[in-house]
Amino acid sequence: MHTVQVETPGGHYPIHIGAGRLDAVADSIPADATAIAIVTNTTVGALYGARLRAALEAAGKPLLTIELPDGEQYKTWESLDRIFDALLAAALDRKAVLVALGGGVVGDICGFAASCYMRGIRFVQVPTTLLAQVDSSVGGKTAINHPRGKNMIGAFYQPLAVEIDPHVLATLPAREISAGLAEIIKYGMIADAGFFDWCEAHVDALRALDDQAIRHAVRRSCELKAWVVSQDERESGLRAILNFGHTFGHAIESGLGYGQWLHGEAVGCGMVMAAELSARAGSLDAAAVDRIRALVSAIGCPVDPPGLGADRWLDLMRVDKKNEGRRIRYVLLPALGQAEVRAVDDDVVRPLLPGTAQS
Ligand SMILES: NC(=O)c1ccc[n+]([C@@H]2O[C@H](COP(=O)([O-])OP(=O)(O)OC[C@H]3O[C@@H](n4cnc5c(N)ncnc54)[C@H](O)[C@@H]3O)[C@@H](O)[C@H]2O)c1
Ligand SMILES: O=C(O)C(=O)C[C@@H](O)[C@H](O)[C@H](O)COP(=O)(O)O
Ligand SMILES: [Zn+2]
Questions:
Q1: Which residues are catalytic?
Q2: Which domain range does residue 321 map to?
Q3: What pLDDT is recorded for position 356?
Q4: How far apart are CA 356 and CA 18, in angstroms?
Q5: Can you give the CATH number for the domain in which 347 is found?
Q6: Are residues 189 and 337 in contact, defined by beta-carbon separation less than 8 angstroms?
Q7: Nearest ligand, CA of residue 105?
Q8: Are residues 161 and 200 in the same domain?
Q9: Which residues make up the binding site for NAD(+) (predicted)?
Q10: Residue that is last in its domain, among 120, 137, 171
Q11: Do 213 and 137 share a structural domain?
Q12: Cα 226 to chain center, whole Å?
């Protein structure tokens, strides 16, 4: 097992990475917990719910499972309410612990529920998608979506621990592996050019879930994310670099309707657009833009943005937590492996937004 430590004002906690961690989640349940509620969805619950329940028997606490419907379109108030209804019906108290078993959708909703229930109870992340193992389970961003914008209602709320078992990825559909790889290559683009080179060289092994390649990618991604959030838990500065590609990506998700493009697919395409903008409005060279587009395509994510129309693109991107006033702020790359956040005038961005000619 490998451990990466996260140190934030909101909590210090370990990320445990290793085969079999799913069977050892009881290690992360505090002795004073009065009950455990597993929050999962119908798909992951059917695959791994019984195994996690068996593992948690070791903690010797009353155990409850809450299954949500599966999909980004259920990252809503209604799902949150289902969790609160179940916790209250079972009379769980402030010393109960929630365990998020699933991808980023389950992790984000469960973390937000933990931040609100009785004004805050403890929770553990057990991420089961590649994307959740390298990104969403780490750093304490929790949220639900609003029809007008992604993750608009939420809280910073850190888990007690993150338990990553790479073996659960074996049941993940290929499209979800591609989506997870988008957030992995993001770390190379924004903070570690050497890791970007490594991803280019190992793309086939990563898509095939080669054990060694996945272990390295998960570990390096967690290290880089832990390094960023440990310096800036609440995104007052540095942390915004983790949003590279997301200004465009979130507009794709909300503009097309949640669940049409996967989050990772939208981010993949959004990173190509943000790279093109980095060349137009900054100093990124054309060769680096070409490498970014080629790698996004090689991991199996789309590189051509949908034609929403420039005005609608801009309206959607104006609903973004990085913005100040009406100006849209973007994460740009001055060079591969470096990132900065800057407002760019709409007229500079328009030519990148499909539908521009017609709108
Ligand atoms: N909090 C953060 O810092 C952060 C970071 C990145 C993304 N996110 C959020 O995470 C969400 C995307 O997460 P995601 O990509 O994990 O999507 P997801 O949670 O929808 O999971 C993807 C699909 O895989 C299924 N699944 C999960 N584990 C499986 C397994 N082991 N085997 C088979 N199927 C499995 C799920 O049921 C679902 O159908 C978005 O809502 C995004 O906004 C949050
Ligand atoms: O952890 C972060 O910070 C990130 O920005 C990671 C992103 O991959 C993630 O999608 C996040 O949820 C986006 O944050 P948001 O603040 O734009 O909702
Ligand atoms: Zn993301």
A1: 119, 141, 183, 225, 235, 239, 243, 246, 250, 263
A2: 174-352
A3: 52
A4: 48
A5: 1.20.1090.10
A6: yes
A7: 1
A8: no
A9: 70-75, 104-108, 128-129, 141, 150
A10: 171
A11: no
A12: 13
